[in-house]
Design a protein that fits this description.
The chain is an alpha/beta fold and 232 residues long. The protein is built from ten helices and nine strands.
């Protein structure tokens, strides 16, 4: 029996948690999860923390691969997500199909729940940069209701404390009563591919590779779709 430690981007906790527990039960292994923002997990790795399996955004995995921190040939694309407009389930879907329409939506909203970029989540960091480039940073500062997690962004919308929310689709899908209106238009939108890899220092590399394979089987597609993701 192997004991695996999995460090995984927080937006994937619903799908990876469910599939990981199914894997552990079927294979007779133990799996411990550490879910966090990509920035937060990268900080732990920088301080010397290790795991058997890493599931992070493509740029983060590529950086670790170049540094020799990953087992050669172990990297696999796992799932893809996008920055979504979150609305309450059953609410009318507003027009945000173009950058201009999206700007009008932002201008007309009183409160917008967003992922706090200071936490290090990929959606919050990307949007902060996109708003600055578009000259919308000052306006958004007066409207934004920053949240520590994407799930909290969706909850503020469900509670009526924010009219709309902006966060990763996987986070929206994890909250009952929240709905994904669709992906944001470019340059505000961003698709994110998450990859899994075995850490070079893992003592359970075979079991870790089996864990990654279990996440990407074709029959897992419905689980990923319900969680707001697509298989690559």
């Amino acid at each position: 029996m192997a004991k695996l430690k999995v460090m995984c981007a927080r937006s994937m906790h619903v799908a990876v948690g469910a599939l990981g527990r199914e894997f552990a039960q079927g294979a007779g292994h133990e799996v411990a999860f550490d879910f966090g923002t990509v920035g937060g997990l990268q900080g732990k790795l920088d301080l010397g923390e290790t795991a058997d399996v890493l599931i992070l955004s493509l740029p983060a995995i590529e950086k670790l691969e170049q540094a020799g921190a990953l087992a050669p040939g172990s990297r696999r694309d796992v799932a893809r997500t996008f920055i979504a407009l979150c609305i309450r389930a059953g609410a009318p879907i507003p027009d945000f199909s173009t950058p201009e329409a999206f700007k009008r939506l932002l201008e007309g909203a009183r409160v917008i729940a967003t992922s706090d970029p200071a936490v290090g989540g990929s959606a919050g960091v990307h949007l902060a940069k996109a708003f600055a480039r578009a000259g919308l940073a000052a306006m958004m500062q007066g409207k934004s209701l920053p949240q520590q997690t994407g799930a909290e962004v969706a909850r503020r919308v469900v509670e009526g404390k924010a009219e709309i929310g902006l966060t990763l689709s996987g986070e929206v899908a994890s909250v009952e009563g929240a709905a994904i209106a669709g992906p944001l238009p470019q340059p505000f939108g961003q698709d994110t591919t998450y990859c899994a890899a075995v850490m070079a220092g893992s003592g359970e590399q075979a079991a870790a590779a089996d864990f990654i394979a279990a996440l990407t089987r074709p029959e897992t597609r419905p689980t990923w779709k319900r969680a707001g993701f697509e298989l690559p």
